[in-house]
Specification:
Length: 113
């Protein structure tokens, strides 16, 4: 199991990665931790004909926006490792500002597995 903590100016974002056979499980938590979303990503040949992409299925708790984080991470890892990935978790900050969302987006873009 590997764990990363990304320190944002307003909260810590924690990502735990565990290999399950040939598949992967990601747990994302931070802020007020909860389970707000689960994404299953499965690799497939890219529709462009070059490289690997993936198809995702999403389960969201009503009113939650955690899909933005979980889908991005699940799809990236699935395409990189050509493996099935489940990403679940929740990251909640009350009254998150546009600047904080931008900081979170920038941090997510830098995450590598």
């Amino acid at each position: 199991m590997a764990e990363k903590t990304i320190r944002l100016s307003f909260a810590d974002l924690k990502i735990r990665l565990e290999q399950v056979g040939e598949d992967y499980l990601l747990l994302v938590t931070g802020g007020r931790e909860h389970l707000g979303c689960t994404v299953l990503a499965e690799p497939r040949p890219s529709l462009t004909g070059v490289g690997t992409s993936c198809t995702s299925s999403v389960l969201n708790a009503s009113g939650h926006k955690d899909e933005l984080i979980c889908r991005l991470l699940a799809e990236r890892l699935s395409a990189q490792r050509e493996a099935r990935v489940v990403c679940t978790g929740g990251f909640h900050i009350d009254d998150i500002s546009p600047a904080q969302l931008k900081e979170l987006d920038e941090a997510l873009e830098k995450i590598s597995f």
